[in-house]
Design brief:
Layout (H helix, E strand, L loop, with lengths): L13 H8 L3 H9 L7 H14 L5 H8 L4 E6 L5 H14 L5 E6 L4 H13 L4 E5 L9 H13 L3 E5 L7 E5 L1 H14 L4 E5 L6 H15 L7 E5 L5 H13 L6 E5 L2 H14 L8 E3 L16 E3 L2 H12 L7 E3 L2 E3 L8
Parallel strand pairs: 1-2, 1-3, 3-4, 4-5, 5-11, 6-7, 6-8, 8-9
Antiparallel strand pairs: 10-12
């Protein structure tokens, strides 16, 4: 309870704030909890001044009941330990820092049924928005159920943002996957490579398919100088590259051959196994990846990659989630030619 002089007290209540401000409890509640019902500017100012003087903090649960939404943004990723997802999450959190919104992160571990449960969890919590990051699959058995849950969020006044998705009809941050790998193929042809092995990740991952197709499109533009193109399916992470490294070597090596890995983690897995086998990059075989994750700064040879501006992608998703912008946003990629693919 506040003292008569309005000295702050740890037990200050909404009633104390209303009394000090000279308004009703209902008016004080509307002023502090973000109700859409109008409160005069003078009354709102007096209520906020009284709350500050008393050290009163509004109850977030009460605020969400009044608004129908919390200030929480739900971020769903496959693996927050992966640099790709960590970079996007960092950009999103940084962009929302000054908005008063909070970010809760859920990890799917590539389990599609678990992803739906996490969407439902954020829906029950009345999240202001849910952001889903990562590749969709062409064989998703739960796509209809996921779509239904996401539609419920938007129907109730929340927002859904997809990052690196273009299959669902929601606001999206689109990555130039196909364009980036097409430009990489052209750049590799320019410096003299004529033989190519594509380590394409899982064939059911839309991101992997887009990157593989873009690379093939780039090669097709100069088909006359392309001598050989091979493709190997792999996992989508470091272990995936490590596991197929010997198979990739069996398809050929030499000064004119370059391996394009569908992402940098796959490329790093290949590099690790080849080192164990005594195979040197780039003297025995050249190597390029995609994403340009920060980890590459500490790897030698410095890996050629396609830069995805992860922080910018996260910031763009945050602005869509917070209703600062609307519609779809496309994030461009940039080819970074480095030591692992010297001119031949």
């Amino acid at each position: 309870m506040a003292t008569r002089r309005g000295v702050p007290s740890t037990s200050a209540t909404l009633t104390d704030v209303a009394r000090l401000a000279g308004v009703s409890i209902a008016t004080a509640s509307r002023a502090l909890n973000g109700s859409q019902r109008s409160v005069s500017a003078d009354s709102a100012d007096r209520v906020r001044a009284a709350a500050e003087r008393l050290g009163y903090l509004p109850n977030e649960s009460a605020q969400s009941m009044v608004r129908g939404r919390t200030n929480n943004i739900g971020l769903i990723v496959r693996d927050i330990a992966e640099p790709y997802f960590a970079g996007i999450a960092s950009g999103l959190i940084d962009e929302l820092e000054s908005t008063g919104m909070h970010v809760s992160i859920a990890v799917t571990s590539d389990d599609l049924a678990r992803e739906i449960e996490q969407v439902r969890m954020f829906r029950r919590q009345r999240a202001a928005a849910v952001v889903l990051v990562g590749s969709r699959r062409t064989d998703e058995p739960h796509a209809a159920a996921l779509m239904e849950e996401l539609r419920h969020i938007e129907t109730a006044g929340g927002r859904v943002v997809m990052l690196s998705h273009h299959q669902f009809p929601f606001r999206s941050v689109l990555i130039g996957n196909r364009e980036g790998s097409q430009e990489l193929a052209s750049a590799l042809l320019e410096v003299g490579y004529t033989e190519f092995t594509i380590v394409g990740g899982p064939s059911t991952y839309v991101t992997a398919k887009d990157r593989v197709q873009g690379f093939r499109d780039g090669l097709a533009e100069r088909a006359a100088v392309v001598d050989d193109v091979r493709t190997v399916e792999s996992g989508f992470g470091w272990q995936g590259g490590f596991d197929v490294a010997e198979q990739v070597l069996e398809l050929g090596r030499g000064p004119r051959r370059v391996v394009f890995a569908v992402n940098d983690l796959v490329a790093l897995g290949l590099l690790a196994r080849w080192r164990e086998l005594g195979v040197a990059v780039p003297s025995d075989i050249a190597l390029a990846g995609f994403d340009d994750i920060p980890t590459l700064r500490d790897v030698r040879p410095w890996l050629t990659s396609v830069e995805v501006p992860l922080m910018l992608a996260g910031r763009s998703a945050a602005r869509l989630a917070a209703a600062v912008t609307d519609g779809n946003v496309t994030v461009s990629t940039v080819v970074k030619m480095r030591e692992s693919t010297p001119a031949r």
